């Protein structure tokens, strides 16, 4: 046997041993037990609220999104889910982090 053949076999055996001895990830849990109901609701509403979004636009997707604009806008502009604004009119967007206690999660599209 050639040294090249032996080194190839050795590399394959070593790779197989590493794969067998590597710690295995825990079995995937059911998404119902790991994904809070608020997340499922928010993602569903995001899809419903922003499904017709035009290019170069932002959509207020779910319950806690703040925005500032480069021009004057009405007080109620971009304040509720499904509201849309052109990107060129936005100075900034802020979304709230997931808070299951307050049932808040700011999502925008």
What does this structure look like?
With 109 residues, the chain is α+β, with helices and mostly antiparallel strands. It has 3 helices and 5 strands, in the order αααβββββ. It has helices at 3-21, 31-34, 37-49, and strands spanning 57-62, 65-69, 84-86, 90-95, 107-108. The chain has a 3-stranded antiparallel sheet with strand order 3-1-5. The protein has a two-stranded antiparallel ribbon with strand order 2-4. The longest helix has 19 residues, at 3-21. The radius of gyration is 25 Å and the shape is globular. Residues 5-11 and 13-22 have low confidence and may be disordered.
Query: What is the total tally of β strands?
Result: 5
**Broad structural category:** alpha+beta
Shape: globular
Give average pLDDT, whole number. 77
With helices defined by DSSP (H or I, 4 residues minimum), what is the helix count?
A: 3
Please list the strands of the largest sheet in the order they lie side by side.
3-1-5
Helix content: 25-40%
Low-confidence runs of at least 5 consecutive residues = 5-11, 13-22
Alpha carbon gyration radius = 25 Å
User: Biggest sheet: strands, sense, closure?
Assistant: 3 strands, antiparallel
- Give, in order, the helices and strands: HHHEEEEE
Q: Alpha-carbon distance between the termini?
A: 62 Å
Strand content of the residues, in percent? Answer: 15-25%
Descriptive key words:
109 residues; two-stranded antiparallel ribbon; single chain; alpha+beta
In short:
By secondary structure, the chain is of the alpha+beta class. 33% of the residues lie in helices and 20% in strands.
